[in-house]
Amino acid sequence: MDALTGLSSPEAEVRLQRDGPNELPAASRSGTAQLLLEVVREPMFLLLVACGVIYLALGDRQEALMLLGFVGVVIAMTFVQKRRSQAALDALRDLSSPRALVLRDGAAVRIPGKDLVVGDIVLMAEGDRVPADIELLEANYLTVDESLLTGESQPVLKQALEAVDAGAAGPQHLCFSGSLVTQGTAQGRVVATGPRSALGRIGASLGGIALDETPIQRETAQIVRRVAMAGASIALLLSVGWALSRGDWLGGLLAGLTLAMAILPEELPVVLTIFLGLGAWRLSRERVLTRRIPAVELLGATTVLCVDKTGTLTRNQMEVRRLWVDGAAFELGEQPVTAMGHAFHPVLEYAVLSSHRRAFDPMESAIGVAGRHWLQGSEHLHADWTLVSDYPLSRELLAMSRVWRSPDRRELLVAAKGAPEAIADLCHLPPEQQQHIAAQVAALAAGGLRVLGVARTMFATESLPAIQHDFDFEFVGLVALQDPVRADVPAAINDCHAAGIRVAMITGDHPATALAIARHAGLNVDGGHLTGSELDALDDTALAERLRDTQVFCRVRPEQKLRLVQAFRARGDVVAMTGDGVNDAPALKAAHIGVAMGGRGTDVAREAADLVLLKDDFGSLVTTIRYGRRVFANLRKAITFVFAAHLPIIGLALAPLLMGWPLILMPAHILFLQLVIDPACSIVFEAEALEPGAMRQPPRRPEARLFDAALVRLGVLQGLGLLVAVLAGYVLGERLGGGADAGRTVAFAVLVLGNLGLIQANRSWAASASGPREVNTAFRWIVLGAGALLALALGVPQVAALFKFTAPPATLLALSAALALTTWGWCTAAVALLHRRTWPQSSSSWWPTRRSP
Ligand code: ADP
Ligand code: MG
């Protein structure tokens, strides 16, 4: 094995087989026993068992057996659901586990951290989690945060194996799994993986996917609790009333339990879990990874998107376009190399010298490419020079220098590049020359180019100064690079604006470049720009004032993003923020939705984020918002349905007591409806596409609740309609068919068919839904399934006997169908009447009107 080629793939495979994956044993995968316990704790399960016991006490074997059958159904469904959501979570966890850059077969490739094996050569840079225990072969200013292991959050300096004295105390050349690279780059060899690593030995574990509660989950839990309490009290009243009026205690208890089953809104949490879980799963197919599942729903409410310029709006593929030296400019194009005058050689030469030889940064790679091409064959490329020292880019100074020794010279050569202001500052230029350069920078930047200043100096002694300012730099020229806006960005930004979402750009770049790119991308730049230093000078009220119309933030340091997020939040905005660097983590955490870039993002940024875009582009962010809106809209539809569907069942459970009728619905019927129809229906609503106009409407208000008066009104109106139809069915059935069983048969048929009408009515709430809807396969299956089950229950005497149905004559069947059709019409009318008014149509322009006080 050679340090420069790494392991071969077959060798790595062998070692992986031998040592096992580089991961820690999962903390808690719930076993079958635990799942069983969860099932047994379900209230529905307990109600079923109680009813079964009463039937047995009544000597009604068959009913008891049927209930037992349903118990089986409950168990199986809960099992399947839990297993499925667990499998989905495990898959997400695998995707979100750290990745490592390793040399395999001589090339650097990014592999899942769990595939690392002992002997792999790993490349690490600022922001990475160390993926295994690693012995350093090479380290440049490498400091790591080992707080996960030692609790000590002070970064520790690490050095390459050969740089450490044999007698030095402590493992200076070792980086431990789970620690964080806070600065520098390194290359090293894996010495221990998985449970054998330092982290594995202490049994610690990194946070996986968080499942904390969002407002809507808390809201749901609260609603469920209240309804359940109310249901229990009503059921108790019913039991007592029944028992007292008819002197039949067991029958009363049964009626009460039946009512409790009818009221219990046990579908709501299930619906929520299914919608959010499947939402996350659908997003993963769009290459968007959800680290915090509830974020899916919050996305729909996003009002401000704060995005990075470089790499998110632009392609992050740079190219040197122009050089500027002393008043003359050169445009790099297709011309022969000799077309470039000698005057332009030094600026490129020193730009190359101030870059890393093996560049990570696309800007430095572009400079390297341009240098190798335009300086080929000249004396300006210095492969034989050796690096003596370097001064990295810092918070205070946007410039970096590298110090070189040439074989044929005594002095050291220093090359610097950076933001033009910073370079002008380092060169101590007189004001008029500074202005001259600034004018040129503005002209280049106005074309959307990123401009760098280049400077050089010589230094005679080995004792280098501590800071770049202490060199006496000479200004060489300007390099302008192009990083085009991604092709799909203008359309995506347009979509955001139509959807009432504001897009703000945050960048470390020059104001003129930032504004030009913003214009290309189609951002609203009427409000001008705000720079990082202006930001620092503003107090909170002044900043809030500026935020009303500013969408371009430039020369912003990552730390300042946090203040921006907080200021937007203080205005009542729902903020989504993108980020990729180590210093972005606090802002990503503070944003409602932190979005990390999966490709170029650091592990730290990904760990802090709620979403990870595996495709790294702005377009997927807009897709994600679309999904978020869809989830919320569909949740409301599903919940309205659940509300409306419960009302007739409750009514049917109460009516016998009030009217002196025999029990119409028995536990079996309710179970049939609740266990078979309801969950299936939530699947129909989950699969419903986004309403056609939904991305042309403003975001829902952040304080908007999932359950609001509008939803309850609609549900109640629809549910009452269904109840009237079902009661009418019972009465007519009983009169025409002769007896309670015939009445029950018709009532049940109307209920099942009416539920289908109810679904159809709620599938689309948009006013413009007159056209054909997208095919919803789940709905077709439900219609078929419900029809088949109904036919079975009515047509097969044995089954009909279980449900206490009679074989209905054709007139009664036609009657049921007619009643169901009427309900469908009623429910659709209710949607038109109530709902369309509460969903406002979009206004064409939003920011001046919508937010101003
Ligand atoms: P962005 O928001 O576009 O990602 P950065 O924060 O990466 O901006 O960079 C901000 C500024 O810092 C750049 O405009 C440039 O002037 C300077 N800069 C960034 N990287 C380098 C580098 N490798 N060498 C010199 N200057 C750099
Ligand atoms: Mg950058």
From TrEMBL:
InterPro entries: ATPase_P-typ_cation-transptr_C (IPR006068), ATPase_P-typ_cation-transptr_N (IPR004014), ATPase_P-typ_cyto_dom_N (IPR023299), ATPase_P-typ_P_site (IPR018303), ATPase_P-typ_TM_dom_sf (IPR023298), ATPase_P-typ_transduc_dom_A_sf (IPR008250), ATPase_P-type_domA (IPR059000), Cation_transp_ATPase_P-type (IPR050510). Belongs to the cation transport ATPase (P-type) (TC 3.A.3) family. Type IIA subfamily. The lineage of its organism: Bacteria, Pseudomonadati, Pseudomonadota, Betaproteobacteria, Burkholderiales. Keywords: ATP-binding, Cell membrane, Membrane, Nucleotide-binding, Translocase, Transmembrane, Transmembrane helix. It comes from Roseateles puraquae. Residues 1-27 are annotated as: Disordered. The keyword Phosphoprotein does not apply. GO terms for biological process: intracellular potassium ion homeostasis; intracellular sodium ion homeostasis; potassium ion import across plasma membrane; proton transmembrane transport; sodium ion export across plasma membrane. NCBIfam families: ATPase_P-type (TIGR01494). Its main location: membrane. This is ATPase.
